[in-house]
Write a structure and sequence with these properties.
Length: about 375
C-alpha cells in the first residue's frame, strides 16, 4: 500500500478508537441509577436565575420543577423582558400556587450586549442574594436534588460547573434527530473533553460562585463574548480555574421538532462555537463517522479488494460506530428507539454541511431575533 493509504488506515483506526473511548468515558460519567442526594447540613445560599421568553409545550413542567426543589436555602428568580409575555403570566400563576417557595418574577431589560438572554438576566444578578449563582434555562427539567448534585460536583479547581442538555420526550423524527445531536454526540464529546481536563461551559445550566464572577466584573463580564457560556469559559480559565461538567446531566423535554428547527438550532450553535473557539471548531468536521468510512472505502477500492469485501468492511465499521452510541444511550437512560440509528446516520451526514455553513454565514437567530456577528462584536467591545 502507498503512504497515503497507510495514513488513511491510521486515521480510520484513530478516529474509531477516539469514538469508542469517548463512549466509554461518557458511560462512566452519565450512568443512571444514582440515589437522590440529600441537602448537606449548613447548606450554602443559592440563587437560581431563570430567563423566560415565550412559551413552549413543556415550559409549565420545567418551570414548575424549579419550585419543587429539595434544598433548604434557595431562591428562584425568574427574569422576563416584557410584562405581557405569556411566560410571565405562567410564572405568576406558578408562584401563587407555591407560596412557601422563595420565588420572584422580575420584569425589564438591560441592553449590555447583543445576547438577549444575558440582557434579560442582568436584573436577576443585581438582586440575587446567594453565595452561589445558578443560571438555568427555562427548558431545563430540574430533579428535586438539582442543587445538591451541582454542589457535589464542585471541586477545588472548579470555576464553573455546567450540565449539557439531554433531549428527552421527543415527538416525531425531527425531535429524535435533535436527541441524536444533543445526547450521544455533543454531550459525549463534551464529557470526553471534560474528563481530559479541557472542559467548556454550557449555558443550559451554569453554577458559579458569586465572588468569582464579581472578581471578573460581574455579569457584565459575560458580555465579552457573543455567547455567555463562551465568556464564562474564558473568565474561569483566566482565573486559573476549570470549567467542568456535572455527572448525570439534566434533561430537556423536546416535544415536536421540525427538521428546519433542528437545522436552525444546530447552525446557530455551530456559528457560536466557531466565533468563540475557532481552533477547536475547525476539527469538528472530523468527529462524525463519514470521514473514517470514506477513508476505509478509498483504501479498499485503491487496493483492488472485491467490492463485496469493501462494502462489508464499511458496513461493519458503521455498525460499530452506531452500535456504540446505542450502548451509551441505553446505559445512560437516554432516548433510544427504532428511529435512533437513522437519526444518528443523518446527523453524521449533516455534520459537514453544518460545519461549512458556520464558516460562511455572519449571523444567527435567537427567538426570532436575527443577530449579526459584527453587531455582537461591537456590543461586546
Amino acid at each position: 500500500m502507498t503512504a497515503l493509504e497507510w495514513l488513511l488506515i491510521g486515521f480510520c483506526a484513530a478516529a474509531t478508537a477516539l469514538h469508542l473511548g469517548s463512549v466509554a468515558i461518557t458511560m462512566l460519567r452519565c450512568r443512571q441509577g444514582a440515589p437522590q442526594a440529600p441537602p448537606e447540613h449548613g447548606a450554602p445560599s443559592v440563587s437560581i436565575l431563570r430567563p423566560i421568553c415565550g412559551l413552549d409545550r413543556y415550559d409549565e413542567l420545567t418551570l414548575r420543577s424549579g419550585l419543587s426543589l429539595d434544598y433548604p436555602n434557595v431562591e428562584m428568580i425568574f427574569c422576563c423582558a416584557d410584562a405581557g409575555d405569556p411566560a410571565a403570566h405562567l410564572v405568576r400563576r406558578l408562584i401563587d400556587a407555591n407560596p412557601r417557595v422563595r420565588a420572584s418574577l422580575l420584569i425589564g431589560n438591560h441592553g449590555i450586549s447583543a445576547n438577549p438572554k444575558l440582557n434579560n438576566l442582568v436584573k436577576g444578578w443585581q438582586v440575587a442574594g446567594g453565595d452561589w449563582i445558578i443560571f438555568a434555562d427555562s427548558n431545563v427539567l430540574m430533579p428535586r436534588d438539582y442543587v445538591q448534585r451541582l454542589l457535589l460536583g464542585w471541586r477545588r479547581d472548579t470555576g464553573i460547573l455546567c450540565s449539557p442538555p439531554i433531549g428527552c420526550r421527543p415527538e416525531g423524527f425531527g425531535a429524535v434527530l435533535e436527541c441524536a445531536f444533543l445526547n450521544t454526540y455533543q454531550a459525549r464529546w463534551q464529557y470526553a473533553a471534560d474528563s481530559l481536563g479541557f472542559g467548556f461551559a454550557q449555558g443550559k445550566t451554569m453554577l458559579m460562585r458569586r465572588g468569582d464572577l464579581a472578581l471578573a466584573g460581574g455579569i457584565h463580564a459575560l458580555a465579552a463574548e457573543i455567547a455567555e457560556d463562551a465568556a464564562a469559559t474564558k473568565i474561569v480559565r483566566g482565573l486559573g480555574l476549570n470549567a467542568t461538567l456535572v455527572n448525570a446531566p439534566f434533561r430537556q423535554p423536546l416535544g415536536a421538532r421540525t427538521l428546519r428547527q433542528v437545522w436552525d438550532r444546530q447552525a446557530r450553535w455551530a456559528r457560536l462555537r466557531r466565533m468563540a473557539f475557532p481552533g477547536c471548531f475547525a476539527v469538528e468536521v472530523l468527529t462524525g463517522c463519514l470521514p473514517p468510512l470514506a477513508a476505509l472505502a478509498y483504501v479498499g477500492a485503491a487496493t483492488d479488494l472485491p467490492t463485496e469485501t469493501v462494502l462489508a468492511g464499511v458496513a461493519g465499521l458503521a455498525a460499530a460506530w452506531l452500535g456504540a452510541e446505542a450502548v451509551l444511550a441505553r446505559a445512560a437512560g437516554w432516548h433510544l428507539g427504532w428511529q435512533s440509528p437513522f437519526a444518528w446516520a443523518l446527523r453524521d451526514a449533516l455534520l459537514p454541511f453544518v460545519w461549512a455553513h458556520a464558516w460562511v454565514t455572519d449571523s444567527y437567530a435567537w427567538r426570532d431575533n436575527e443577530i449579526s456577528t459584527a453587531e455582537s462584536g461591537a456590543r461586546a467591545g
